Structure formats: C-alpha cells, structure tokens
C-alpha cells in the first residue's frame, strides 16, 4: 500500500524498479536530516559556526591556517552525531541490497549512517567523521576507539579524515562511483543540493550511460529539470514505500 504523504510514482518508474539489476543511489545531507543531522544548505540558509560559513571552516585553507579551529568544529559535530540513528530512508536503501543484484551506494555524508543501517561497500566521497588521518604519513585512526592525540606512526598532527573544500577526494572513490553510474539502469539522487563537485557529476554520468535518473528532495535543485522523474518530499517518507507495490 502506498503512503498518503508519498508523491505519485509513475508506471515507468515502477516498471524500471521491478526489472533493474544495476542501481546507484547518490545521497547527500538530506538523507540524514530526519535522523537529526543538520544539512549544510537548504531553505535558503547556509550553516554557520561561530560566525563562519561552513565552507570557510570546512576548507583546506582553514586547515592549513588553523588546525585547532577545524578540530573544534569537527569535535562539536562528532558530539552532535554521537547519538543519531539511521532513519527509514537509510534502512530502505540498505534493504535494497536484497532486491537489486548490483546496488552501489555513493554518499557525500561523513556520518556513517548508511553503514549503521546495514549498507555494505558504501563509497564515501567526502570521508568519515569517525576517522582521523595523519597530515604526514596518512595513517588513519578510528575515533570511536581512540583519542585524537598525535600520530602513533610518525608523531605528527592528526586531522579529520574528511574532504574539505579545495581538497582531492579519496583515491579511487570518485572513479568507482563514476564507473557504477556509467552502467546503471536506475540512479536515485537523494537529499543533495547537487551544488558540490565532482559528486554532482554522478547523475549526468548515469544519464549519459542511459540510466533513468530519479531525484528525491522536498526542494528543487539545479538537477531537478534534468532528472527523468522528481519525487518531491522527504526521503524517509518516500524511499520505504517506493518498492511496496512493485
Ligand atoms: C532533504 C531532506 C529530507 C533536506 N529528505 N532531502 C566545478 C565547478 C565549480 C567548482 C568546482 C568544480 N569542481 C570542483 C569544484 C570546487 C569545489 C566545489 O564543488 N565547489 C562548489 C560549491 C562550487 N569542490 C571541491 O573542492 C571538491 N574537491 C575537488 O573537486 O577536488 C579537485 C580539486 C581540488 C583543488 C582544486 C580544484 C579541484 C571537494 C568537495 C568537498 C566538499 N566537502 C563538504 C564538507 C565535508 C566535511 C564537512 O562535513 O564539513 O561536503 S562541503 C558540504 O557539501 C559537504 C557535503 O557532503 C557537500 C554536499 O552537500 P549536500 O549533501 O548536497 O547537502 P546540502 O545541505 O547542500 O543539501 C541538502 C539537501 O537535502 C537540500 O537540497 C534539501 O532540500 C534536502 N533535504 N531534508 C530529502 N528529509
């Protein structure tokens, strides 16, 4: 049975959902919004911390200028994320692993909630807030188990293992995501403003390879007019009912 809050799903999408083997799901901050993780943009607002827009504090330039300030910002956010749990959208995506033979979850999120919901092989384009990395030898440590002191390998400073503005993505992550997108039959774009590159290229790559692109977002984005279908609403309302009557 379809939920009353979910928008109408076309016959075409139902048919494609029923028959697809290769599916890509690109997620952004909106997929975790219903878990209580704040988004960066949306509703015309930009996230600000201690008077600084997030794209200033979350930048490679700030890391070089003031590493302690960057840590303070990420310590604050780890604290905030400590008690959040996956929501019905994360759970639905994890369940799709049983439905689609090749499901690739590509996320811009650093909160680890897809993995907590049970998704495997998640491609994290922007890193993970629960890890730190040495600025010199690149050794990583798990912040759920260790305190963030100096690097035990070489003694140099640690930094959050996330991708800040102006920094390169983790080696191979974008390439793996692009390869999956280029051969997928269905591509869901969930809860992203689609403003940040190269992640925002993924839906176009899917479309070039003849994937059917479906956006799920309560707001319009620069991608909306390009998508084959837009399901306007919250991910936690829409994703769990998407395959219900297929
Ligand atoms: C819901 C919902 C609900 C709400 N259900 N939906 C090409 C052109 C121009 C610029 C560039 C370009 N290529 C590269 C750049 C530069 C830059 C960039 O993209 N800038 C643009 C802003 C213009 N990119 C980079 O620097 C990247 N690196 C790179 O390209 O390396 C190569 C290079 C290096 C040096 C020079 C040149 C090239 C790195 C990008 C790293 C982004 N990092 C951040 C911070 C991570 C750490 C942290 O958390 O602080 O990642 S920025 C921030 O934005 C975060 C997010 O992952 C990312 C995307 O945001 P997202 O997920 O879309 O969230 P929001 O908040 O924007 O949107 C939420 C959406 O959810 C909204 O639409 C809501 O409506 C919706 N929503 N509730 C469903 N319940």
What features would you describe in this structure?
- By secondary structure, the chain is of the alpha/beta class.
- It is built from 10 helices and 11 strands.
- It has a domain of 145 residues: Rossmann fold, CATH 3.40.50.
- It has a 6-stranded parallel sheet, with helices on both faces. Strands 7-6-8 form a 3-stranded antiparallel sheet, with helices on one face. Strands 2-3 form a two-stranded antiparallel ribbon.
- A hairpin with a 5-residue loop joins strand 6 and strand 7.
- Helix 8 runs parallel beside helix 9.
- The longest helix has 15 residues.
- It is globular.
- The model has no long low-confidence stretch (mean pLDDT 94).
- Ligand BJW binds next to helix 2 and helix 10.
Strand order, sheet with most strands:
5-4-1-9-10-11
CATH topology of one domain: Rossmann fold
Q: Name the CATH homologous superfamily of one domain.
A: TPP-binding domain
| Elements, N to C (H/E) | HEHEEHHHHEHEEEEHEHEEH
Distance between the termini: 10 Å
**Low-confidence runs (pLDDT<50, min 5 residues)?**
none
Proportion of strand residues: 15-25%
What is the second-level CATH architecture of one domain? 3-Layer(aba) Sandwich
Largest sheet: 6 strands, parallel
Ligand inventory reads: ligand BJW
Give the overall silhouette: globular
């Amino acid at each position: 049975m379809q939920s009353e809050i979910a928008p109408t799903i076309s016959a075409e999408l139902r048919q494609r959902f029923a028959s697809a083997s290769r599916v890509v799901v690109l997620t952004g901050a909106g997929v975790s919004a219903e878990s209580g993780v704040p988004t960066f943009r949306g509703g015309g607002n930009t996230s600000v911390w201690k008077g600084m827009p997030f794209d200033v504090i979350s930048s490679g330039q700030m890391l070089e200028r003031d590493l302690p300030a960057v840590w303070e910002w990420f310590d604050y956010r780890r604290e905030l994320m400590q008690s959040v749990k996956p929501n019905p959208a994360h759970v639905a995506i994890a369940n799709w692993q049983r439905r689609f033979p090749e499901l690739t979850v590509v996320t811009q999120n650093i909160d680890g909630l897809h993995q907590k919901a049970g998704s495997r092989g998640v491609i994290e384009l922007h890193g993970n807030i629960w890890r730190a990395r040495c600025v010199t030898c690149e050794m990583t440590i798990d912040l759920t188990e260790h305190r963030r002191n100096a690097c035990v390998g070489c003694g140099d400073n640690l930094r959050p293992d996330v991708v800040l503005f102006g920094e390169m993505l983790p080696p191979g992550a974008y390439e793996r995501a692009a390869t999956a997108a280029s051969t997928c039959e269905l591509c869901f774009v969930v809860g992203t403003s689609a403003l940040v590159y190269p992640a925002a290229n993924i839906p176009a790559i899917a479309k070039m390879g003849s994937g059917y692109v479906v956006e799920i977002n309560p707001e319009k984005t620069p991608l909306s007019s390009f998508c084959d279908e837009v399901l306007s609403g919250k991910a936690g309302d829409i994703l769990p009912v998407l395959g219900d009557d297929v």
